[in-house]
Description:
Helices cover 38% and strands 17% of the residues. The protein is α+β, with helices and mostly antiparallel strands. It has one domain (2-118). Helix 1 crosses helix 2.
Amino acid sequence: xxxxxxxxxxxxxxxxxxxxxxxxxxxxxxxxxxxxxxxxxxxxxxxxxxxxxxxxxxxxxxxxxxxxxxxxxxxxxxxxxxxxxxxxxxxxxxxxxxxxxxxxxxxxxxxxxxxxxxxx
Length: 120
């Protein structure tokens, strides 16, 4: 996953977000974390117990909900970031609610965001 954020989010923020997701009981582990010269971050995560294979990488894929916790934590720190295909926190909230409406996965991770973002 690619994170475009200027200089707001750091390597440490991503590591902390993954740790916070695990503290919520989600199986998500950083496989590779690269920070470019201009601050763009490339992140690959996996799961120890996931049911699906990772795309083009070894290991098991982390769940949609586990990724949601990690991404929500990052958006709480930088609401303007572009994380994966989410163009800011409002886009993230909108897309997660749409996905939950059709598939029913939990969106409890949205509680990590400031109230104004979730109300969007």
